[in-house]
Amino acid sequence: MTRVAVLKGGRSLERGVSLRSGARVEDALGRLGHEVESIDVGPDLIPRLEALAPEVAFVALHGGDGEDGTVQELLEILGLPYTGSGVLACGRAMDKVATKQLLLEAGLPTPPFFSFTETAFRELGAGEALGAIAERLEFPIVVKPSSQGSALGINFARTAADLPAALVAAFSYDGRVLLERHVSGRDLAVSVLERSDGPRALPIVEALPHAEDFYDFEARYEIGRTAFVCPAQLDEGMTERAQELALSTYALLGCRGFARVDLMLGEDGELFVLEANPIPGLTDTSLLPQAADAAGIGFDDLVGRILELALR
Ligand SMILES: Nc1ncnc2c1ncn2[C@@H]1O[C@H](COP(=O)(O)OP(=O)(O)O)[C@@H](O)[C@H]1O
Ligand SMILES: [Mg+2]
């Protein structure tokens, strides 16, 4: 039996998902026989941790401070072991631009992109460069905030006229945005879970839009408008390539314990990494638990393994 503090909630835009992940993790830890206390992360985080004196923290936070390395840094300062990736990996993975630059440097495929800050836009007239960007990326262009999750602030600009509004929307989430070439094809998620012999890729989950949403990009990402299939219907070679790419991305970012890598499979069979999530959702509809289940790892087992890795 281990005394575990489950960290959930927080101030991020993904607070709601985190509360659900956290509740489910608490139940699983209870069933596994651990002593569980939960903390809704806020300004009293440190005194609450000091009062509880847990042996380990289970970080069930998504987005913002909980996934970008901030909370992890505090846990390091307190000398408290915690689940999942460390400060550096979280920082790299939560920043899509940093991730993509590392991928490019390592020769791993990611869609071509340009990125600039709100300062460059407001004070250096970066807007004047949009024509050149559009020429190099071609429409539709995907506009996204550099650090956000759950498709928040992501817009598809079909023409030049759509770009200003898409940029304003993305800047409302983050001071850095990226404009990325659109990959038309299949939407794949590869979860990675560390085993005693190292990280392993789990069966692939494919997100399938409803037929009527196929050409309506925004509708595809509304909750409930997408069906998930696991394992994705891919031939063995493609499955292996996607899993290899996810494992390479995991290693490149320095992730630990578990993570989920989001990919696109282009119509010509080319794979691209979009991003990595150091703390993917753990709710009953989340992709990592689905993938683990397809590999014969039930939710309690998944949570138990993640905890064990933190204590090692
Ligand atoms: N370049 C792209 N081409 C096609 N679809 C994209 C592209 N970028 C993002 N998307 C779609 O938007 C979804 C969310 O994008 P992603 O980069 O994973 O951000 P997040 O999940 O953090 O919101 C993807 O799963 C994919 O369906
Ligand atoms: Mg994603």
Structure description:
- With 312 residues, the protein is α+β, with helices and mostly antiparallel strands.
- The chain contains 13 helices and 13 strands.
- Strands 8, 9, 10, 11, 12 and 13 form a 6-stranded antiparallel beta sheet that branches. A 4-stranded antiparallel beta sheet has the order 4-7-5-6.
- A hairpin with a 2-residue loop joins strand 8 and strand 9.
- Helix 1 packs across helix 13.
- Magnesium ion binds next to loops.
The tally of helices reads: 13
Largest sheet: 6 strands, antiparallel
Q: Into which percent range does the helicity of residues fall?
A: 25-40%
Quaternary organisation of the protein chains: single chain
Average pLDDT confidence is 93
Order of helices and strands: EHEHEHHHHEHHEEHEEEEHEHEEHH
Give the tags.
binds magnesium ion; alpha+beta; six-stranded antiparallel sheet; globular; binds adenosine-5'-diphosphate; about 300 residues
